[in-house]
Amino acid sequence: MHTPDASPDAAHGLRRIRHPNPVRAIAVASGKGGVGKTNVTANLAISLRKLGKKVMIVDADLGLSNIDVLLHLAPKHIIQNLLNGDMPLKDILIEGPHGIKILPAGSGVQELTSLGQHEKLKLLDELDMLKEQFDIMIVDTEAGISENVTYFTVAGNLASLTESARELAYKHTVKADAIDEKVWSNDSARVYGILYDLKGNTASAVQFYMTDSTRHYLRGSLYFTAQPNEDSLLPVITFLRDDIIRMIETLTWR
Ligand SMILES: Nc1ncnc2c1ncn2[C@@H]1O[C@H](COP(=O)(O)OP(=O)(O)O)[C@@H](O)[C@H]1O
Ligand SMILES: [Mg+2]
Question: According to the model, what pLDDT value does residue 175 have?
């Protein structure tokens, strides 16, 4: 008999759910670069370490100013060695100040935001094996909302672009009243659009489109790769929503 749950991926997931004391993961994120994520990551790690927590930093920012540079470390191996299957996680981790463990990333390689299913499982499996050694995992992320923000040129298609943005928002919910629409209109910057707040356990809680109505069209959605549970995600959603609003408020077209 065919049992869909018998796939190795589902088994992976079930094994993880059973762990009684999962490592607490904190992602440090922002819509813009250079706002202090890496510094927050380092300082948070050191503060938590001083409180007696066992801390691990995952460098998920493959840009130039990496956590290892900030902490004056010279990693020999990077997260890609793990993903390529060359090396186990424990051999890649390096030790930083106060015994903080760091999983370094290196620059200009594949984006961690676009890992395939197999690579994600491999990373999760390896992290699982070290779960007893850590209380907290801090993830220093790359700026931006990555592939969840899409740019279009209007080219006479304003109405259809707006219609598909609207469809994209409404397809996530069966109840129309579960969506708040906040209309945006800034004449001086020529930024017009709608911010959609989707209530409930939707796959995407915040979406928006912004346009100058003649040339530029920007559409974005906030997605989590976690189970969409509004109760537990709400603090993160609120925080990232503020970031999205700040991005919209400071948007300028070139
Ligand atoms: N709290 C702060 N006050 C002043 N400058 C800061 C602060 N946090 C970070 N910086 C500076 O801002 C720049 C970017 O910081 P960084 O942590 O690398 O940001 P991100 O990781 O978001 O790109 C660095 O030059 C850093 O020294
Ligand atoms: Mg950084």
Answer: 67
Which is the closest atom of ligand 1 to the Cα of 35? 22
Alpha helices, DSSP H, located in the chain: 8-17, 37-50, 67-70, 79-83, 89-92, 117-129, 158-170, 230-249
Q: Which residues surround ligand 2, an ion (CB under 5 A)?
A: 37-38, 61
- Beta strands at 24-28 and 136-141: parallel, antiparallel or unpaired: parallel
What mean pLDDT comes out for the span 11-21?
55
Q: Do 128 and 216 have their domain in common? A: no
Q: How many Cβ atoms from other residues are within 10 Å of residue 53's Cβ?
A: 14
Torsion of CA 156, 162, 163, 169, to 10 degrees: 160
Q: Does residue 34 have its Cβ closer than 6 Å to ligand 1?
A: yes
Clarify whether residues 129 and 183 are in a common domain: no
pLDDT tens digit sequence for 49-87: 999 999 999 888 765 558 888 999 989 888 888 888 888
Say yes or no: 130 and 192 in one domain: no
Per DSSP, which regions of 73-190 are E strands? Answer: 94-95, 101-103, 136-141, 149-153, 179-186
